[in-house]
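Supplementary Methods, section 5.1.

A reviewer requested that the exact input to the structure prediction be made available. We therefore reproduce it here, unchanged from the version used in the analyses.
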Amino acid sequence: MLTQKRPNLLNGCLPMVLAGGRGKRLYELTEESCKPALPFGAGGQRLVDFTLASLRAAGFTRAIIATQYRPAPLIRHLRDKWADAFPDGLLIRDATRLSRGGYRGTAHALLANLNLLEREGVNDVLVMPADQICDIDLRPFIQHHRLSDAPATLVAATLSSSDAEHHSVLEVARDGHVSALTHRPNAPAEIGENSGRSLVATGIYLFKTAWLRKELPDLSLGRFDISIEADLLEAALREKALQAYRLPRSDAGREAYWRDIDTLDDYRSALLDFAAPQGGTARGSPPLSCLHLEAQPGVIGVGRRSALTAKGAVSRDCHLTDTLLAPDVSLPAGTIVEGIGRTNMRWFRRSGDTNLITQAMVDRSRERLH
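The structure derived from this sequence is encoded token-by-token as follows.
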């Protein structure tokens, strides 16, 4: 008796990685390359590696990479590190080659690649941001989307309500459909009464290609730019066609790790989550359970709540607080960085709660002091 072959969960599903972001709120760190190419630790990893590790762990062998702002360092990294892991190809779809004026928003990136998706026979497109870190096993998410038969499904995570103000906040009915979505609300809706926690969209989506073909051309009429959150999700919400998949907790009950890298504070906090204190070993286990990076990032913590983004040199008599050191910084002996108005801060940048130091800033400070 012949046994029936089980269908491959990934059949008809293709990832599209959105990797074109500039990251204006990361200032000097993204002057020469896009945000997904930011270094993450001394081991040579880049921010995009977390996304690609998730795709590889799920079993994908092919993916679209949508690039736009200063993509050359990112493309070199993808070809050097990830080409063998995706034997059926990483399709680089650079905006400047595909669309006059480039991608005009995240939803426009989907529209500009829609013909390719249809030629590839893609039924469901998995949209992944390349500028965040998420502890996600993608296979249950894909299965959830397929079983619900929803045109659009998003991954949702919980945050403190104060942090949720900077994200798209969701209200979800018991059957899983999204009943309300508010972008960057002043008073985010909480999960339960007085929980202090809110449900937010992570930027990971699954869309049926046929539904995108129906919606995207109309959304783009007379519009300079269209985004997934502000336009495409709103269309799905109006049709009651938007489902939510909540990041599952670990067996120990811990919430899945998710961090969007949008600001210097975000970047520093994420690095510190992976950091080993100077002269010591990593504190505890890495905050990711589902990813299979070939090597841990090897982030080096220096001073109080401070970290190196990549390799660098910091003298032992430097005193750093809430500081982020750009790649290849060589910090002079006696440098003190504690906050606005403190020693040396007139040479460096402060944004939010983070002090940023690049080698160019160090060089300028030396020139003016001498």
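The longest strand covers residues 197-208. These observations are discussed further in the main text.
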